[in-house]
Write a structure and sequence with these properties.
Order of helices and strands: HHHHHHHHHH
Shape: globular
């Protein structure tokens, strides 16, 4: 059992335990620890901002948010975020969770790499993106105390070369579906890892369309 960190604890429910077991059995240690940290960064942020959020839904979304990067989706051509969102939806439906709550979790997972939108939606959706941004890119780093950062990392260690590790995890999960990265910053990962990757340029798409003007 992980001790509470700044008043945040992992929900003690059968649903949360089932989520933990599924993700631990499916993801690498790097992605599992990352997903748990995303929950804590998000929940601590939510408490600091006085947001009213459901910890169980936030935890579920945080844990599923990168599931689409795993080997079980190596044949998918969907955005990896959608694979994870669909998996979360199916998991929650099998346990009788309400469609409203399922929609919240689906959106939180599907939109976590889409800046400029989640922060205006339900707190659980906003906080998954905030937590992911903190853990991957250090967004909001200064808003956490040294003690908070140290406690989260102690509970869910950040690998010595996590920066390159997470980039590689993104690449491994997306290299077989390069078209799915169009319109997101995910194409930065493919461009960084694969010198032969060709970005889709929206201006060229517009100019090459069948419209005469």
């Amino acid at each position: 059992m992980v001790e509470p960190i700044s008043g945040v604890r992992i929900p003690d429910s059968k649903l949360a335990r089932d989520v933990t077991q599924l993700i631990r059995d499916t993801e690498s240690e790097l992605l599992f620890h990352h997903s748990a940290r995303v929950y804590f960064w998000g929940a601590i942020t939510g408490n600091r901002q006085g947001l009213n959020f459901d910890p169980e839904l936030l935890y579920t979304a945080a844990m599923f948010h990168d599931l689409g990067l795993t080997a079980r989706y190596e044949g998918s051509q969907l955005r990896f975020e959608v694979d994870g969102a669909n998996a979360a939806r199916d998991f929650l439906r099998s346990r009788g969770i309400s469609e409203g709550d399922i929609e919240t979790v689906w959106n939180a997972v599907a939109l976590h790499t889409t800046p400029g939108i989640p922060e205006f939606m339900r707190p659980e959706i906003a906080l998954v993106q905030a937590g992911a941004g903190m853990d991957v890119a250090g967004r909001g780093y200064e808003q956490f105390t040294d003690g908070q950062r140290e406690a989260v990392i102690a509970a869910f260690p950040r690998e010595p070369d996590f920066k390159h590790g997470i980039i590689d995890a993104f690449y491994q999960g997306m290299k077989h579906r390069p078209a799915s990265t169009f319109g997101t910053f995910n194409d930065d990962v493919l461009a960084f890892k694969d010198p032969g990757f060709q970005r889709i340029d929206m201006c060229s798409v517009i100019l090459a369309s069948k419209w005469r003007s």
